Each structure stands twice: as C-alpha cells, then as structure tokens.
Amino acid sequence: MTTSGVVPQARFSAQARLRALQSDIMELILERELEAGDPLPTENELSVALGVGRNTLRESLKVLQALGVIEIRHGFGMFVAPSNFDALADGLTFRGRLSLRHQGLEALQLVDVRQALESGLIGSSMDVMTAEQLVSIEECVKQMEELAGEGENFVAADAEFHRRLFEPLNNELLINLMGVFWKVYRKIHVEIGSANEDLVATAAMHRKIYTAVAAGDKPSASELLNRHFDGIRRRISEAVAS
Question: Residue 4: helix, strand or coil by DSSP?
C-alpha cells in the first residue's frame, strides 16, 4: 500500500520538475532576447546556467521541440523555432476526433471558437478589403460552385475562401489559427463522412456570404457566417448521434 502511494507522487514530482525546467528554458530565451532562428546555448552551457544534468535537460528540450518552441538540428545545434502551429493542430485534431466517439463536445467547441472569430472579425476585414481582394474571394466561390455541380467535394476551395476573407486584416496569427482549424476540420470531415452534405447548398451559402461582403453589408455577412457554422455544427451532432 505504501509503495503504490509513493510511486505516483514521485512521478508527479518528476513531471513538475520537468515542466519547471521547460519554463526556465523559455524564460532564458526571452531574457536573452533571442529571435526565431537564433542559436541557443549549447547543452553544456544550458546545464551550467540552469543547474541541471544533461539527461534531464535533454528530456525537456525534446518536449520543447515537440511544442515548436525550439528546433534541434543534429550536427548544427539548437535554435529558436520559427512560428509553427503543427503541434497545436495535432493536439486539437486528436481531441476533436476522439470526441466524435463520445458526445463530440471538443469538436463542437472548435466550431464555436472559429465561428466567433470569423463572424466577429468580418466587419473589420470588410473595412480594409480592396476590389482586387473581392475578385479573388469570388474566384473561390466560382470554384466551389463548379465542383458542387460535378458532385465533387471542395474542402480546399472552402478553406481558401475563408482565408481570403480575412487576408485584408494582415493578421498572421489569425491566418495561422484559421489554418489550424482547417487542418482539424479536414480530419473531422473524413471521420464524419460527406453522405449527408448538400454540396450545392453549401456553395450557395458561400455565394451569399460573398454577396453580402461585396455589398458592404456587415450585419448580413456576420449573420450568414453564423448560419454557415450552424450547418457544420449540425453535421457533427448528427454524426455523433448516428
């Protein structure tokens, strides 16, 4: 009884120490004002600076590499990683797909977040949208309409439509987050299938969104985006219930 109670506590303590060390490494990067692509100190230098053994240090460095904080180039050293949302996408994809085997809660919450972002920011994007950008958005709509008419799925064109809607904001973080949501949605889309998807109706909804944006009608554009995501939410709920 005593042993079984001590082992989990020891494991917890080891995990807590590793998390603390990961935080210390990130603080060191910030304190030294290192930028993406800059080299980190060597393992020996980090071990001395942080007061830890090399084996413990390596465990934390591997975690930070998986999180996209640092980049380890064998034979060259360690570097501050460029912006990379792959780890976030992988984690959210797993949680979303796993939730489909239960109530679909995480998958639906992801839709909620994306819906709030797009419906809330569309007006700001419309304020700075150029005529050329409107043309490029309509190109995506036309592609969706053509594919829908042929009975072909248009997930890629759909993703590009939404990316171009918010490209005028010149917000790299927003575009990266939308990219993450689309990676997750593609996987979920495969999981739930497309048997109940009305491609023509979906393309028509995107045409309505474009028309509202082109007309400068912010309330309608926001409302139509909300309705579009309601449809995605409905498909996920139906897939979970079946």
Answer: helix
Whether residue 100 is found in the same domain as residue 145: yes
Tell which residue, 81, 61, 80, has the closest CA to residue 21: 61
Entry pTM: 0.69
Rounded CA separation 124/106 (Å): 28
Cβ–Cβ under 8 Å, residues 212 and 222? no
Q: Is 154 inside any structural domain?
A: yes
Q: Where are the beta strands (DSSP E) in the chain?
A: 70-73, 77-80
Q: Which tokens belong to 16?
A: 């807590």
| Residues facing 80 on adjacent strands | 70
> Considering the domain boundaries, does residue 4 fall inside one?
no
Q: Same structural domain for residues 64 and 45? A: yes
Say if residue 203's pLDDT is above 80: yes
Q: How many of the other CB atoms lie within 10 Å of CB of 155?
A: 15
Domain that holds residue 72: 9-80
| Cβ-contact 189, 174 below 8 angstroms | no
Which of 29-33, 47-51, 238-242 has the least mean pLDDT? Answer: 238-242
200 and 95 housed in the same domain = yes
Q: In whole angstroms, what is the distance from residue 156 CA to residue 140 CA?
A: 10
Last residue of a domain, one of 61, 80, 99: 80
Among 26, 49, 80, identify where a domain stops.
Answer: 80
